Amino acid sequence: MSIRRVYKQHNSAVVTFGAPLIFAIFLVAGWWITTALSGVESWVLPSPSDYVSRLSFELGNEALWASLWITAEEALLGSLFGALIALPLAYFIYKSRVFSAAVEPFLGATQAIPAIALAPLLVLWIGYGTSAIVALCTLMVFFPILVSSTTGLRHLDEDVLDAARLDGASGLTLLLYMEAPLALPSILAGVRNGFTLSVTGAVVGEMVMGGTGLGTILTIQRNNVDTAGMFVTISLLCVMAMTVYTLIYSVERKSRLVNSSRR
Fold first, then answer.
1. Under CATH, what is the fold of the domain 44-262?
2. Which residue ranges make up each domain of the chain?
3. pTM
4. Chain segment 208-247, per-residue pLDDT in tens
């Protein structure tokens, strides 16, 4: 490995981890200055010290961890079901011009309807609780996964696919060994963005349709004007979403490197 490549990788790692850290430091500094100098009351905006104190207390709260797991489970199930529906549909849209022309206008029209607006209907059809929340999450992640996967499939390298066809690959073999691996970065990008939407769907669903996750805790904290508690709960949601987002993104980057080496 050349010195230039090592230097580039080092700089890339510094930017990847250093830039967010520096930005976070500026945010916290601005937060502290605002609470220290403006005289804002803690129930409107808690100070960083109030937040850290409440966070250290809540981290020992087993009920909060149980609620976090429930919300994560709902978001993961919604992402899974959304992917299971979106991926085959994306493949059919990619393969069939007639099916694409018939379906895509209706799929576009559905995006004019906010998924959250469907929550009352889901309550009528499914009822309150986990099933309705997972259904809402599925609706929210379905379209991002579908669009990203369809785009990835439509932009495959035709020269590579033609070479595979000349070697006898077709149908399921072509899909499993060429089309799916080459489109994997785009598919993972859709899943990555879909999961963050799924977390939003889970929280909003719990607020509207019941449940015992972090959305319910946020509702209780809002009603009690517990701003510090809301900050802690929201930050846990952010950490959960960022963790899964980063994990999927790392797999996505590796798949892009593998695809680049194939070309």
1. MetI-like fold (1.10.3720)
2. 1-40, 44-262
3. 0.81
4. 887 889 999 999 999 999 999 999 999 999 998 888 888 8
